[in-house]
């Protein structure tokens, strides 16, 4: 799930939330504008092109084709999505052959997602049309509850642990009485994260429990309310200044100041399609990029451009898929071959005498190429890998069951490792080594490894509600305990003999001090960590460009 605080998403997961199967096409009343909702929160707009395909902006390489019974959406990597005339996604097929099929209830709401191997997700809805329950391939249920304004309030996992979300109602969004996400209470019952906003509904701070990992944001807006600059105060009180530019209608970083010296900046330049054309670092070193602008694919990168240290990297692309055919760089040319589905069939590495890569594919070769070859099944699963050696066989082969689970791996020496007893999530619960040794594995309802039985030697694992490892009980009797603070940072490791490791961290999570003590409590070792300058440099946030996304 993802929350987009700047997009007016009113979805089946509540206001401003989306999920990774949230697809929809909508043809506008003018019949020449097609709106395409993507799971990442974007809404793309397409109009009829010169041929059969509808096209979007220059920086969007996806295409849409109108069919008699709906629409065909094609991505640069060869993924094809088929929609019916109502704009409901029917299937997604990756170039490799992997396919997902989508089903809907009588109200045109997504009710199922299934793959070719019989794995299935089921969705149920409440009276307001919001997802109330998701059933996973094992039949386990995840439930969702909402407040009276349609905001997602709780997620209850199969182990009955609950994650909760809080909102502020003081800032109306788009004229609607819905709130902005302000708090996340984790499955341990701890308020783990907090966000605050200004009167324009822009995030002005983000922090974790105890005030750590806190970033503060101060915006500069143009006359239309668009973000043109932001000052970010990091958890260690360094200030970074960002300037934005919109070369293709989307905010991109134009410049970023050094956290220790605001007179220094690294800068970006873009072409008309929004591709990065030049990057200049804090030391003034430039990297220059060239593109095939018909597909926005990078064809050349020159590092330390304009200097004696320049290094050139050149790429030639597949005619229809966003896959490289050749890559040339200093002292090496790599070539790739693919089948019609885009599966890699061969990879060849050829040494050259081109020390800086400037000669590209015309470089003089040196020695004999080393080549790997591969075969695949119709589901895009690797069957064989033949290594570069020619003096001996170096083939590794793979076998699968009817559900797509890996059954065995046979190495070049003929040694076989077997996998079996898969659960409904596709996790192997039994592994048999080439020497016959059997390892048994068992899992928590949320997917975490609980027990490993190595031929009778048992190791057990325990977790808190969030999934942080709390304890390991080893077969030799040793017990390791792990303690975290409310911000999910590891603070202490101890064993059942009284030995301990303690960590002191700064507000950015960097380890300042690592103390090792023995069973008597005596300090056995002391390690100091980062210098202050290094800490400041490490405290860089994900950059907000006016299009925020928080993965929760």
From TrEMBL:
<protein>
    <submittedName>
        <fullName>RHS repeat protein</fullName>
    </submittedName>
</protein>
<dbReference type="InterPro" id="IPR050708">
    <property type="entry name" value="T6SS_VgrG/RHS"/>
</dbReference>
<dbReference type="Pfam" id="PF25023">
    <property type="entry name" value="TEN_YD-shell"/>
</dbReference>
<dbReference type="InterPro" id="IPR031325">
    <property type="entry name" value="RHS_repeat"/>
</dbReference>
<feature type="domain" description="Teneurin-like YD-shell">
    <location>
        <begin position="366"/>
        <end position="503"/>
    </location>
</feature>
<dbReference type="InterPro" id="IPR006530">
    <property type="entry name" value="YD"/>
</dbReference>
<dbReference type="InterPro" id="IPR056823">
    <property type="entry name" value="TEN-like_YD-shell"/>
</dbReference>
<dbReference type="Pfam" id="PF05593">
    <property type="entry name" value="RHS_repeat"/>
</dbReference>
<keyword id="KW-0677">Repeat</keyword>
